[in-house]
């Protein structure tokens, strides 16, 4: 059973999230919070596998709550809920170690898929979030989108053929166990490939590697 905490300052959004998640037999919503402080308190109490946090909440927002959860309840993996127009927040959450990103207006099934993926150790980026992150990085930096994509392809070309396969699966939201089954290898081999990929791409986490996969056109949209 995947134990999930949901946090959003709007009661109707929380009710909707709970309604979606409780349709899955393998997911149990163990707590609801209306702000970041309450989310951290409930996570410390219930130790959920996954916390689904709204990116903007009063008092302590989702990014600050993410940082506190990473510090005090590191086993709890965090999915950030966002809306269009919050790209700067998304980038901060990406750098803060969020494991997943979902658009609030996305399909209900995507929430369940994302929770399962993150609980299984994967990084999950909604394709729409990934596309916005790639475009925003280009718009706010010195590099054009074409340049970023070219750079990402160069980074990917530096990987071994097997590492490129693994990166493509990372970008598509697969866990180490799922990748191992696809490639017919043991999970420890996949873990070694992932560690090598993160080092060679110069990124800190799977979600950031997934962005590179999307920039390079490896991940399925």
Q: Care to describe what's here?
A:
This protein has 221 residues and is of the alpha/beta class. The chain folds into two domains: 2-119, 3-Layer(aba) Sandwich (Rossmann fold), CATH 3.40.50; 134-215, Orthogonal Bundle (Arc Repressor Mutant, subunit A), CATH 1.10.10.10. 57% of the residues lie in helices and 14% in strands. It is built from eleven helices and six strands. It has helices spanning 11-21, 36-46, 62-72, 87-95, 108-119, 127-140, 145-157, 161-171, 176-183, 187-201, 206-215, and strands at 2-7, 27-33, 50-54, 77-82, 100-103, 124-125. Strands 2-1-3-4-5-6 form a six-stranded parallel β-sheet, sandwiched between helices. Strand 3, helix 3 and strand 4 form a beta-alpha-beta unit. Helix 6 (127-140) crosses helix 7.
Low-pLDDT regions: none
Corresponding CATH architecture of the largest domain? 3-Layer(aba) Sandwich
Quaternary state of the chains: single chain
Shape: globular
> Using DSSP, what is the number of strands?
6
Looking at CATH, the homologous superfamily of the largest domain is: Response regulator
Give the DSSP E fraction (strand runs of 2 or more residues).
5-15%
User: Structural class of the secondary structure composition?
Assistant: alpha/beta
Q: What is the helix/strand order?
A: EHEHEHEHEHEHHHHHH
Distance between the termini: 29 Å
Number of helices: 11
CATH class of the largest domain: Alpha Beta
What is the count of structural domains?
A: 2
The order of strands across the largest sheet is 2-1-3-4-5-6
Summed over residues and divided by their number, the pLDDT gives a mean of 87
- What can be said about the biggest beta sheet? 6 strands, parallel
């Amino acid at each position: 059973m995947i134990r999930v905490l949901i946090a959003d300052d709007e009661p109707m959004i929380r009710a909707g999230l709970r309604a979606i998640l409780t349709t899955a037999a393998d997911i149990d919503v163990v707590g609801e919070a209306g702000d970041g402080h309450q989310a951290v308190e409930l996570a410390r109490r219930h130790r959920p596998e996954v916390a689904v946090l709204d990116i903007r909440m009063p008092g302590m927002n989702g990014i600050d709550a993410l940082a506190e959860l990473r510090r005090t309840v590191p086993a709890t993996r965090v999915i950030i809920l966002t809306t269009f127009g919050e790209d700067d927040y998304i980038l901060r959450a990406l750098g803060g170690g969020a494991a997943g990103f979902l658009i609030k207006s996305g399909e209900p099934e995507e929430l369940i898929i994302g929770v399962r993926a993150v609980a299984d150790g994967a990084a999950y980026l909604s394709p729409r979030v990934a596309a916005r992150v790639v475009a925003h990085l280009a718009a706010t930096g010195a590099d054009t989108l074409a340049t970023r994509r070219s750079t990402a392809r160069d980074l990917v070309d530096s990987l071994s053929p097997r590492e490129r396969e693994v990166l493509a699966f990372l970008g598509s939201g697969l866990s180490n166990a799922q990748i191992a089954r696809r490639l017919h290898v043991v999970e420890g081999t996949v873990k070694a490939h992932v560690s090598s990929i993160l080092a060679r791409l110069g990124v800190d986490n799977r979600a950031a590697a997934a962005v590179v996969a999307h920039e390079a056109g490896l991940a399925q949209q």
